[in-house]
Amino acid sequence: MDKPTYILAIESSCDDTSASVMCNAKVLSNVVANQEVHSKYGGVVPELASRAHQQNIVPVVQQALAQAKITKNDLSAIAFTKGPGLMGSLLVGTSFAKSMALGLNIPLLDVNHMQAHILAHFIDEEGSKKPNFPFICLTISGGHTQIVKVSNYFDMEILGETIDDAVGEAFDKSAKILGLPYPGGPLIDKYAQLGNPKAYSFTKPKVGDLDFSFSGLKTGILYFIQKQQRINPNFIEENLNDICASIQHTIVEILMDKLKNAVKQTGIKEIAIAGGVSANSEIRKRLINAEKHFGWPTYIPKFEYTTDNAAMIGITGYLKYISNMHADINVTAKARLKVTE
């Protein structure tokens, strides 16, 4: 029998420090340390994020190894997030992974964070189905909104993307306008469940068939709220559920319209979603409906693999390891990195 491949994966692209141990394509541990420090600033502060990663990385890695019931000497390779992300945060993970791989004399695997969000679908989990190639992936997060055609594990093509802000930012900024704490996206989702999605209508941006734009929508929401508050200062408190439901409905409609265009243009009906915003309940509901209505086989990742986590870095590292795609020890972190790089 073949010896199992154990991969330690490290993710530090933004404000969560995460480490995971994979045995082949199975997750043995997936530890995430969140950083509470940013909530009072209403957004991630890069300098504070880097410092917190430095404090968290050793205990998080130790915990991941302990939960997986293996020692560092059992490891076959170390995978880490090369980019995209906050440079200071990426450097903490990169330096740690490099020195540990050197110390243990095992291969190093550099992982593109955006590819990892997509490849999280290939984690071996009981009861989870994996997409068939080629498939279309809607990658939606705080920093990215893209429609990606995935022809193979490392053969991807961007069909459309946002020309300004990402969808996660549109959710968070709308929440900020409503006076909700950071991160506000999940709160909009929560209040939207209790509201009427048709209560208020917001204009959808006019951009290309497969491209996205959210900056105009954010401005439209801001002006709408300011106007209503001049008429009734308690407008937000009195209508919070309806406002959130209407904002969420508009954003999800935009995403679904673009997906329909992508299916029409490519003829590919296998649809996956990835990234932090794919945790949104309305998106999940609409995709499940699309599977019934349009006959699209849809793939929705487990909640813990939607936000930034090291298991998705681990599965990508494993796929690179078995394809002999090892990184050079001189590899450097890159704050900007396309999903195709």
UniProtKB/TrEMBL annotation:
InterPro entries (alphabetical): ATPase_NBD (IPR043129), Gcp-like_dom (IPR000905), KAE1/TsaD (IPR017861), Peptidase_M22_CS (IPR017860), TsaD (IPR022450)
Gene Ontology CC, one term: cytoplasm
SUPFAM superfamilies the UniProt entry points to: Actin-like ATPase domain (SSF53067)
Keywords on record: Acyltransferase, Cytoplasm, Iron, Metal-binding, Transferase, tRNA processing
GO molecular function, one term: iron ion binding
Residues holding Fe cation: H113, H117, D308
A family per Pfam: TsaD
Gene3D superfamilies listed in its UniProt record: 3.30.420.40
The keyword Ion transport is assigned to this record: no
GO biological process: tRNA threonylcarbamoyladenosine modification
Main localization, broad class: cytoplasm
Compartments, as annotated in UniProt: Cytoplasm
Cofactor note: Binds 1 Fe(2+) ion per subunit.
UniProt binding sites for substrate: T139, I140, S141, G142, G143, D172, G185, D189, N280
Catalytic activity of the protein: L-threonylcarbamoyladenylate + adenosine(37) in tRNA = N(6)-L-threonylcarbamoyladenosine(37) in tRNA + AMP + H(+)
PROSITE patterns the UniProt entry points to: GLYCOPROTEASE
PANTHER family tied to this protein: TRNA N6-ADENOSINE THREONYLCARBAMOYLTRANSFERASE, TRNA N6-ADENOSINE THREONYLCARBAMOYLTRANSFERASE, MITOCHONDRIAL
Family listed: Belongs to the KAE1 / TsaD family.
Role: Required for the formation of a threonylcarbamoyl group on adenosine at position 37 (t(6)A37) in tRNAs that read codons beginning with adenine. Is involved in the transfer of the threonylcarbamoyl moiety of threonylcarbamoyl-AMP (TC-AMP) to the N6 group of A37, together with TsaE and TsaB. TsaD likely plays a direct catalytic role in this reaction.
Name the record gives this protein: tRNA N6-adenosine threonylcarbamoyltransferase
Species the sequence originates in: Polaribacter dokdonensis DSW-5
